[in-house]
């Protein structure tokens, strides 16, 4: 057989094997395919409904009383911290009169005279997910997936649930708020606290 | 003759008793001061717990990392405190150690498997960068153009930080990212990247960097271009030099990680494993704290 034909056949075989040995996929596409296997919106809707139905929130006044007497046990009993850290997230209830509504923040005053900031614009991060205490890190294979649950949950709260409620509120109204509160061990309790709400009712 | 044999046997036993169990600390790179702190803290904690500790530098190279694992497996180490070079590429090394019966405790960097390492102790990069993102939006009054400088593309921390930041910033349509480029967590590369980006985008308002070394490089590029006063810089790590710059009003904010906590926890878990503990959480997130002008004096 002609040498050129031999080399030609060899080259074709080599190219055939090389072509079938590797394939290339766009990294973004691969990542989105992985994420697509979980319906985060459905999971977040279920979690939001669970937070409202379970009603595990503690009255803020009860929490503050517990923190002032037995701080460590109050963190252990009412708070939730995933992993290692000095802070924890608490799901709390509080009621108060609206003093001011300004750029995504509703300032209320409780019957005890404390002012509390209710944040309705910067609803981000893992505060609400972790304060709920209804999901565990081990429920998801990676941290990235666990964080995507928070993003979907925050979107529901920030873009669906809160705008409707906030529209109806005006200065002077008395409102009830259920939401996530972040506290750090040793933090003074007489400073203004900020709540990321899951529910606001007149 | 019998006496000689008995003496040799006793000497061997004495050597064995004197030999300490060994813990390896395998670090992605010792070129970055942050990882030097992590490595030295892990080794010191292991030593304090009574182990012989040895540090291996993978030089940000998966094949060097693989060689390190081959060496330490054949050298009979009892546990590995591991800072991986690649979220996917490092899994095979962990599995080799696992097959050899050596537990692996990941520090700071996550691998994309939940059945390889014995436990992964990781900074909560996502939450930390959510806080940096909120600070970013407020500092820019929700409008402006910005550049993002990413770390190593094969490292999950790069994407966790970027993801946390964008989960906030992308919801504000007045903020436009004009460039997103990698500088491999390296100070000099970040400086060069920003110099190049600014040639096409001279009027940026802010730079978000995936670590503090890159934030310092970006700040240097802005200083050379006479734009350090106008362009706001944000970093991540909590490096001392950046905290000083926050106090001076030259950098806006950073997220403070806790390498000492991660190193201490990894060494403690390795000790507990060697002493018989069998069940560990697969992932242990470690809190990240926001540092800005309001609290920088405390650090």
Can you walk through the features of this model?
The complex is a heterodimer of chains A (202) and B (299). Chain A is of the alpha+beta class. Chain A has seven helices and seven strands. In chain A, strands 3-4-5-7-6 form a five-stranded mixed beta barrel. In chain A, strand 4 and strand 5 form a beta hairpin. In chain A, helix 3 packs across helix 7 and helix 4 packs across helix 5. The longest helix of chain A has 25 residues. The mean pLDDT of chain A is 89. By secondary structure, chain B is an alpha/beta fold. Chain B has ten helices and twelve strands. In chain B, helix 5 runs parallel beside helix 6 and helix 7 crosses helix 8. At the A-B interface, helix 7 of A face helix 5, helix 6 and strand 11 of B.
Name the descriptors:
heterodimer, A: 202 residues, alpha+beta, 5-stranded mixed β-barrel, 7 helices, 7 strands, B: 6-stranded parallel sheet
Query: If strands are numbered along the chain, what order do they take across the biggest sheet of chain A?
Result: 3-4-5-7-6
Mean pLDDT of chain B: 93
Strand order of the largest sheet of chain B: 2-1-3-4-5-11
Largest sheet of chain A: 5 strands, mixed, barrel
Structure annotation, total helices of chain A: 7
How many beta-strand runs of chain A?
7
Secondary-structure content class of chain B: alpha/beta
Topology:
The complex is a heterodimer of chains A (202) and B (299).
Chain A: H1 3-21, H2 27-36, H3 40-54, E1 58-59, H4 60-69, H5 71-78, E2 79-80, E3 87-102, E4 105-109, E5 115-119, H6 127-132, H7 143-167, E6 174-184, E7 193-201
Parallel strand pairs in A: 1-3, 5-7
Antiparallel strand pairs in A: 2-3, 3-4, 3-6, 4-5, 6-7
Helix pairs in contact in A: 3-7, 4-5
Chain B: H1 2-18, E1 22-27, H2 33-48, E2 52-57, H3 62-74, E3 79-82, H4 91-99, E4 104-107, E5 119-123, H5 125-139, E6 144-150, H6 156-169, E7 175-182, H7 187-200, E8 206-209, H8 212-224, E9 232-234, H9 240-247, E10 254-256, H10 259-274, E11 283-286, E12 289-291
Parallel strand pairs in B: 1-2, 1-3, 3-4, 4-5, 5-11, 6-7, 6-8, 8-9
Antiparallel strand pairs in B: 10-12
């Amino acid at each position: 057989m002609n040498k050129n034909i031999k080399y030609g056949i060899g080259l074709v075989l080599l190219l055939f094997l090389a072509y079938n040995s590797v394939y290339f996929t766009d990294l973004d596409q691969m990542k989105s395919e992985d994420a697509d296997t979980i319906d985060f919106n459905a999971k977040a809707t279920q979690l939001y409904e669970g937070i409202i139905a379970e009603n595990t929130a503690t009255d803020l006044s009860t929490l503050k009383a517990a923190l002032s007497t037995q701080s460590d046990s109050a963190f252990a009993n009412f708070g939730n911290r995933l992993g290692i850290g000095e802070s924890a997230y608490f799901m709390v209830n509080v009621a108060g009169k609206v003093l001011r509504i300004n750029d995504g923040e509703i300032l209320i005053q409780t019957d005890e005279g404390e002012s509390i900031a209710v944040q309705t614009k910067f609803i981000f991060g893992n505060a609400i997910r972790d304060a709920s205490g209804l999901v565990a890190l081990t429920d998801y294979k990676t941290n990235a997936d666990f964080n995507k649950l928070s993003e979907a949950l925050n979107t529901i709260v920030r873009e669906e649930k809160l705008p409707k409620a906030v529209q109806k509120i005006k200065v002077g109204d008395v409102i009830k708020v259920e939401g996530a509160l972040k506290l750090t061990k040793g933090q003074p309790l007489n400073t203004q606290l900020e709540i990321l709400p899951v529910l606001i009712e007149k | 003759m019998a006496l000689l044999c008995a003496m040799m046997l006793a000497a061997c036993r004495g050597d064995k008793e004197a030999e300490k169990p060994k813990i390896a600390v395998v670090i992605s790179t010792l070129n970055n001061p942050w990882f030097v702190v992590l490595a030295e803290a892990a080794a010191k904690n292991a030593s304090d717990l009574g182990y012989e500790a040895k540090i291996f530098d993978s030089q940000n190279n998966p094949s060097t990392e693989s060689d390190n694992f081959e060496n330490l497996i054949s050298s009979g180490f009892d546990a590995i405190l591991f800072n991986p070079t690649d979220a996917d590429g490092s899994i095979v090394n962990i599995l080799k150690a696992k097959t050899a019966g050596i537990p692996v405790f990941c520090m700071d960097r996550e691998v994309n498997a939940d059945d390889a390492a014995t436990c992964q102790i990781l900074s909560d990069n996502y939450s930390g960068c959510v806080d940096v993102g909120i600070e970013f939006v407020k500092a820019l009054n929700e409008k402006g153009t910005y550049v993002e400088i990413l770390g190593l593309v094969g490292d999950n921390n790069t994407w966790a930080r970027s993801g946390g930041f964008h989960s906030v910033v992308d919801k504000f349509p007045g903020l436009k990212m004009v460039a997103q480029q990698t500088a491999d967590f390296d100070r000099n590369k970040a400086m060069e990247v920003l110099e190049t980006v600014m040639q096409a985008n001279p009027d940026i308002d802010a730079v978000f960097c995936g670590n503090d070394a890159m934030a310092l490089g970006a700040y240097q590029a802005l200083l050379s271009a006479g734009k350090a006063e106008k362009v706001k810089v944000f970093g991540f790590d909590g490096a001392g030099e950046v905290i000083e710059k926050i106090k001076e009003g030259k950098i806006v904010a950073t997220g403070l990680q806790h390498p000492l906590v991660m190193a201490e926890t990894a060494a403690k878990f390795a000790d507990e494993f060697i002493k018989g503990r069998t069940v560990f959480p697969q992932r242990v997130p470690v809190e990240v704290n926001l540092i800005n002008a309001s609290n920088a004096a405390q650090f």
